[in-house]
């Protein structure tokens, strides 16, 4: 063969791979089939978009975490929510979405689903299963839950709602990112589809995006996989490797997030500038009983309601922080803080707090240092 051909064709087959702790990263779009008959064999992997070695290993590990037969991967947590919804909804369907849901979920419902003839109605997270079922219509196909809710950390009685919905033939989908698939097991509590943003705690290092969805229902599992194919989603093999690496230490990191978070939350409860702390693991929290019954632990994310003060003072507080970064997302090793009030304006159910709402993510730093940083912020708030 000519040298040009030999340069193209040589080195395609690696020698026998050494046995490493983690699976190798395969990068490839084309999958070479053994024979012509295999090209259209749906039982075989025929194209790289469905995931090669590292995505397949991640799916297997996540299925173990979720207690499910299979997991579908998406390029972000939001894509997992929207992808799962598109997989099970059609024109003419009605969806009930908890009013405390992740804001981009709400944006998808209002902008995208509306264009395709799907109606979205938002319900108060305080509604119990009977009150929620009273809102259901003959065309209600799906109820979307989130517990604790984004920003306001409302708890829902997920098992009761899931059971009531199932009895009516209504599917349930939960955003379980706060529970990370570890602290709360939605499928074991009767939820149809469990979704989480792997970007947060599973990744754990704030450096890659991914989401997952899983179900115990084989038919819906096929619908999730088909929708992923139909839309053309795929995940990077390198990101899947990073997610799998993060997953290995998830059960080790989460108790530290919980301990640090509760230490800071309890300190904040005693501060004169604080009206209340929104954290379901605190005994005085309205959702504590449900959390204690259904969850095996807490993460590091919670809300802080300040006593009445100005936006200028809130900004001074945040700007004075040096250990807390000012940024969205959460679930990494680092601590973060944001001001939430601008996001509350889109809620259908009015949110009545004493003052401004902050959201804190407590990372893996020493809580004594984090408390000192917050003290610095409160001094700046007072000065402003």
Description:
- This protein starts with a helix and ends with a helix.
- It has helices at residues 3-9, 53-66, 77-88, 103-115, 129-133, 158-167, 218-231, 237-248, 250-269, 288-294, 311-319, 341-344, 367-383, and strands at 71-74, 94-98, 119-123, 140-146, 171-175, 193-197, 211-215, 274-278, 301-306, 325-326, 336-339, 357-361.
- The chain is globular, with a radius of gyration of 23 Å.
- The relative contact order is 0.12.
- It has 384 residues and is α/β, with parallel strands linked by helices.
- Strand 2 (94-98), helix 4 and strand 3 form a beta-alpha-beta unit.
- The protein has 2 domains: 36-244, Aspartate Aminotransferase, domain 2; 250-383, Alpha-Beta Complex (Aspartate Aminotransferase, domain 1).
- It has a 7-stranded mixed sheet with strand order 1-7-6-5-4-2-3, sandwiched between helices. It has a 5-stranded mixed sheet with strand order 8-9-12-11-10, with helices on one face.
- The model has no long low-confidence stretch (mean pLDDT 95).
- It has 13 helices and 12 strands.
Please describe the structure with a list of short key phrases separated by commas or semicolons.
single chain; alpha/beta; Aspartate Aminotransferase, domain 2; Aspartate Aminotransferase, domain 1; 2 domains; 5-stranded mixed beta sheet; globular
């Amino acid at each position: 063969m000519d040298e040009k051909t030999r340069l193209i064709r040589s080195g395609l087959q690696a020698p026998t791979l050494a046995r490493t702790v983690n699976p190798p990263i395969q990068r490839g779009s084309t999958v070479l089939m053994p024979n012509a008959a295999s090209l259209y064999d749906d039982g075989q992997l025929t194209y790289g978009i469905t995931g090669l070695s590292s995505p397949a290993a991640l799916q297997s590990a996540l299925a173990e975490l979720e207690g499910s037969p299979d997991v579908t991967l998406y390029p972000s947590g939001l894509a997992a929510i929207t992808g799962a919804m598109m997989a099970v909804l059609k024109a003419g369907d009605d969806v009930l979405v908890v009013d405390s849901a992740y804001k981009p979920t709400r944006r998808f419902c209002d902008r995208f689903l509306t264009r395709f003839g799907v109606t979205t109605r938002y319900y108060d997270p305080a509604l119990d299963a009977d009150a929620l079922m009273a809102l259901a219509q003959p065309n209600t196909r799906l109820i979307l839950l989130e517990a604790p809710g984004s920003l306001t950390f409302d708890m829902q009685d997920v098992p009761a709602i899931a059971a009531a919905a199932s009895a009516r033939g209504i599917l349930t989908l939960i955003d379980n990112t706060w529970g990370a698939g570890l602290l709360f097991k939605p499928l074991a509590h009767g939820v149809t589809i469990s979704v989480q943003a792997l970007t947060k705690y599973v990744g754990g290092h704030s450096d890659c995006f991914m989401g997952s969805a899983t179900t115990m229902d084989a038919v819906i599992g096929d619908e999730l996989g088909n929708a992923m194919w139909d839309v053309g989603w795929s995940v990077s093999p390198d990101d899947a490797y990073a997610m799998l690496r993060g997953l290995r230490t998830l059960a080790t990191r989460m108790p530290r997030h919980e301990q640090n978070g509760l230490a800071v939350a309890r300190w904040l409860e005693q501060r004169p500038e604080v009206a209340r702390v929104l954290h379901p693991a605190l005994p005085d929290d309205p959702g504590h009983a449900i959390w204690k019954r259904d969850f095996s632990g807490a993460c590091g994310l919670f809300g802080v309601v300040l006593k009445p003060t100005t936006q200028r003072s809130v900004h001074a507080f945040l700007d004075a922080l040096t250990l807390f970064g000012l940024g969205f997302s959460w679930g990494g090793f680092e601590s973060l803080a944001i001001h939430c009030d601008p996001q509350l304006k889109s809620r259908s159910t009015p949110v009545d707090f004493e003052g401004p709402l902050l959201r804190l993510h407590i990372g893996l730093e020493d809580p004594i240092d984090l408390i000192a940083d917050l003290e610095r912020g409160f001094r700046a708030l007072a000065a402003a």
